[in-house]
Amino acid sequence: MMLRACRWLALGCALLAPATWAQQQPVDMPPLTPPAEALPPAAQEPDLYLEALQAISDGRKSDAGAILTRMVQRGARNAGELLDLAMLQCALGRADEAEALFVTIETTFKPPKGLQAIIDDQRRQGCIRWKRQQQWGVNVARGYDHNVNQGASNPNYSVDGGELTLPAEYRPKADHYATVTLDYVTDLSENGDLAYVQLYGRRNDHEFDHNTISAFGGIDHPWRWGRWKWRASGLAGALTLGGKIYQTQTQAQLRLTPPLPLPPSMELSLVSGLTHLKYRTLTNFDSNTTELRSILSHRGDDHFAQLSAGAMRDHAVASRPGGDRNGWSFGVSTRQALGHGLEAELDWNALQWNGQRSYSPGLIDAVRRQNSRTLRASLSYAVTPNSAIQLEWRAIRNKENISIFQYDNRIVQLSWRWRDGK
């Protein structure tokens, strides 16, 4: 019984503290079970207690409540199990039920001083009821874009009977720009459901036809099936270009994290998704894209690294130039804390698309092959606990077998971001 008391003293504050929205990601709990000989017979059965703790840690309060109901139905056999039930009731915000169990422990089992101290301390703290967690942020940036319009590196293309030359408006144009990003995230339920909204605007100093505004919103629902972690999400939004709606997008994703025998700092997930793009100012360019991607991540005390690789199929809704496309993607990203509020990031991404048929028979007979590489590096400094400044550099190299689609770009940006929540 005293082992249970020590366990609650060590875990009570962490388990009963309100979680922020960013802590809703499912994480594996460290081993909490004392030696089997120290546990009562009921606790050596399927461990509903640990299942309930895991559900609370994941932010799945409703699931924890269902598990707790099963524990109550099974019945507690001693003061230690009653204390477990009481503390779980308190963690779920059920103050009256927790107090009734505390009274039963005091009147029936006459608990020793250590156990009574836990009860008294919990009464002083009170039971924490679920409260909606929210976070909002602002990001303001100023930058320089060497190729605002993704102008062709080589504007000339040889065709039967001559050479095709692109007009000047399709050649690279450089400009300074400013951006503002607003985002908001909030809990929807006790079970870890989230909703988020992001608004983004970019204004160029001179190339106004390439000014953009976007608005996106989505929901996210996590759950568990045994030790398997699942997460479903949906997203919808729109993008304007030069003051007109250019594109709308809807997306559905499902993420699975199986219980593999990996180190605690590592996690492997599989992501499947379906994205529908509709172009408002172009005809025959709408598409449905399916994707299957694997993500391997490693998280340390002061660093984070991630590898991702995926295969994609882009199905043209109508008679799109080049028809359907198959592709693959690969990405590497790292983030490292440098101390004194400094943090560095480095990302590299590769994307390959292969068309199905000639891009434009009679004019461009080649089957389009797109090969894009992006390298990004940034250094940020935390000015306050809620704000930071960031210097970012990005290089894009889009190599294609059709020269008029090739382009290179470099972007340098200085931004300030602020986050707050409750």
From TrEMBL:
<feature type="signal peptide">
    <location>
        <begin position="1"/>
        <end position="22"/>
    </location>
</feature>
<protein>
    <submittedName>
        <fullName>Tetratricopeptide repeat protein</fullName>
    </submittedName>
</protein>
<keyword id="KW-0732">Signal</keyword>
